[in-house]
Amino acid sequence: MQPSDLTADSSMSTILETLPGARRAIFARYHLGGCQSCAFGNEETLAELCNRSELPVDEVLGHLLTSHAYDSAMWMDPADANKQRSQLRLIDLRTREEHEAVVIPGSEFFTQELQQQLFAGDSQTKILLYDHSGRNALDQVAWFRGHGLHETYALRGGIDAWSQQIDPKIQRYRLEMDEA
C-alpha cells in the first residue's frame, strides 16, 4: 500500500506498516499510543482513534503523511549505500550476538563509547545506521540528527535487505520478535 492510499478508515496496523515512523509521529504530537491509557488497537481505524481522542482525522492523517515524507529523507536504499560505501561509516545497531554472528563487512558495533566518539567528532561524517529489518533505525537516526549529525541515514530494510540485494554471502536470519 502507498501512503497516498491511506484514509480515515485505514486500520492502525495498515498505517503502521505503510508509514514506519507513524507510531513515533502520532505519539510525539498527540501523545497517543505510548502508554496503556492512550494505547490504540491494531484493528482500530484512524477515524475511531481520532473520534475517541477528540482529534480532527484530516489533521492527524496530514501530520502522519508529512512526518513520513520527513522520515523518507532519512532512508538510504541498499544500492545507494553500496555505491557510497567508501564515504560511509557503517554502524550496526543490533545486539552484540547478532553482530558477532552476521555483519556487513567494515561496520562497527554500536556502543556507548562509540556514540560519545561520534557525537564529539566531525558533524559532517556520513553515517549509515542499520538494524535487522530497518524497523527501528529511524529512531536512532532522529537521535543522531538531533545531536548535530545531520548526515546520518538508516539502511532501508536493514541487514536483511543488504543480504538480499547486495551481498548474498551474508547469512539471512529471522528474529522470533519479527514473527509477532
Order of helices and strands: HHHHEHEHEHEHEH
The number of distinct helices, counting runs of at least 4 residues, comes to 9
Strand content: 5-15%
Q: Which strand order do you get reading across the main beta sheet? A: 1-5-4-2-3
Distance between the termini: 21 Å
CATH architecture of the largest domain: 3-Layer(aba) Sandwich
Tell me, rounded to a whole number, the average pLDDT: 92
3D shape = globular
For the secondary structure, the number of strands is: 5
**Which percent bin holds the helix content?**
40-55%
For the structure shown, list the relevant keywords.
180 residues, alpha/beta, SP0561-like, Oxidized Rhodanese, domain 1, 2 domains, 5-stranded parallel sheet, 9 helices, 10% strand, globular
Please describe the topology of this protein.
Layout: H1 12-18, H2 22-30, H3 46-53, H4 57-72, E1 75-76, H5 78-83, E2 88-92, H6 96-101, E3 108-109, H7 112-120, E4 126-130, H8 137-146, E5 152-155, H9 158-165
Parallel strand pairs: 1-5, 2-3, 2-4, 4-5
